[in-house]
Structures are given as structure tokens and as C-alpha cells.
TrEMBL record:
Regulation: Na(+) is not transported, but it plays an essential structural role and its presence is essential for fluoride channel function.
Pfam families hit by this protein: CRCB (PF02537)
Function: Fluoride-specific ion channel. Important for reducing fluoride concentration in the cell, thus reducing its toxicity.
GO cellular component, one term: plasma membrane
Name of the molecule in the record: Fluoride-specific ion channel FluC
Organism from which the protein derives: Nocardioides silvaticus
PANTHER family: FLUORIDE EXPORT PROTEIN 1-RELATED
One GO term (biological process): cellular detoxification of fluoride
Reaction catalyzed: fluoride(in) = fluoride(out)
Binding site for Na(+): 87, 90
Length: 131
């Protein structure tokens, strides 16, 4: 506690975000508002006996995220594209449920394929960005 007569310091409450945090949050929301419906559309269009739509969404998001890292995006650009769009388009929960629903052998194959292609796409994006 400050001594009597000393100036008080203004302490910003963590519950009151600054303008930058609000803008970043809006960027995440805007990116997710595009990415999530795109994933849904890919799933509706291409999912069948195998979940090709979700696989395509996850791999595409991985590629784009690799590009974001390779281009060193930060701030609002990273919030919009990396966190919002890629986060909205990719899905771990659908991947996990679909892997389980496929059964042991096809599910294992799908999991390895998804993880391998996702890692390859991320690496490709990073390298393509010139890093």
C-alpha cells in the first residue's frame, strides 16, 4: 500500500481488455466465421464411407498455418488467419470421433494418414513461405 501523500499507480484490471485485445478477439471471430462453415461444407460435400471432407479441411488448415508461421505473421493478421480461420476450419473433435467410428484398422489408417498429411502440409507451407 502506498504511503500517505504518494501518488497512486493506476492498475489495469485484467477483466477490462484494451482496445488491441478487443480487435484481436474480433479478428479471431471473423476468421472462425469463415473457417468453420467451410469445414462444415467440405464435410457435407465429401464425407462418405471415409471422412474425406474433414481430412481435406485439416490438411488445408495445416498448410495455411505453416505459411503463416513461415511468413512470421503476428498480431491481428495471425489472429485472423492462424487462430480464427485455421482454428475454425480444422477440427480435432470430429477427427477423434470419426477415427473411433471407423473401427480399429481403418481408424488407425485414417489417424496415421491425417497426422502424416497434416505434418507434411505444415512443413510444405513453412518451406514454401521461404523459411
Amino acid at each position: 500500500m502506498p504511503a500517505r501523500g504518494s501518488p497512486r499507480r493506476s492498475v489495469r484490471s485484467p477483466a477490462a481488455p484494451g482496445r488491441g485485445a478487443v480487435i484481436a478477439t474480433l479478428c479471431v471471430a471473423a476468421g472462425a466465421a469463415v473457417g468453420a462453415p467451410l469445414r462444415f461444407a467440405l464435410g457435407r460435400r465429401y464425407d462418405g464411407a471415409l471422412p474425406w471432407g474433414v481430412l481435406a479441411a485439416n490438411v488445408a488448415a495445416s498448410l495455411l498455418l505453416g505459411l503463416c508461421v513461415g511468413w512470421s505473421l503476428d498480431g491481428n493478421a495471425l489472429a485472423l488467419v492462424g487462430v480464427g480461420f485455421c482454428g475454425g476450419m480444422s477440427t480435432y473433435s470430429s477427427f477423434a470421433v470419426q477415427t473411433r467410428d471407423l473401427g480399429l484398422r481403418p481408424g488407425t489408417t485414417y489417424a496415421v494418414l491425417t497426422l502424416g498429411l497434416g505434418l507434411a502440409a505444415t512443413t510444405l507451407g513453412f518451406v514454401a513461405a521461404g523459411r
